[in-house]
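Per your request, structure below.
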């Protein structure tokens, strides 16, 4: 079976977080939620966050991780861990 991952994942520094904006426009970045970073790669990021109905596979958002500028990203997958917490995978679009 072929591994779906095309890029190496990196472990983030402990306590690293991302800021998310459900808007798809990085030029008007106004974060409306925070998430802990699980893994990072050059092509995307894995996050843990409070469940939110806007963060579903296929939706576009803007994310800012660490010192990087805000970037558009697509929600590629989502796993609800319970009724309040979820894991999501984002693929950078630019």
């Amino acid at each position: 079976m072929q591994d779906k991952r095309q890029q190496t994942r990196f472990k983030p520094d402990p306590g690293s977080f991302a800021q998310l904006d459900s808007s798809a426009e990085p030029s008007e970045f106004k974060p409306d939620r925070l998430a802990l970073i699980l893994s990072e790669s050059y092509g995307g990021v894995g996050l843990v966050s409070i469940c939110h109905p806007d963060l579903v596979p296929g939706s576009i958002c803007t994310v800012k991780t660490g010192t990087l500028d805000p970037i558009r990203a697509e929600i590629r997958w989502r796993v609800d861990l319970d009724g309040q917490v979820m894991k999501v995978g984002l693929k950078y679009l630019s």
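The CA atoms of residues 39 and 90 lie 10 Å apart.

Regards,
D.
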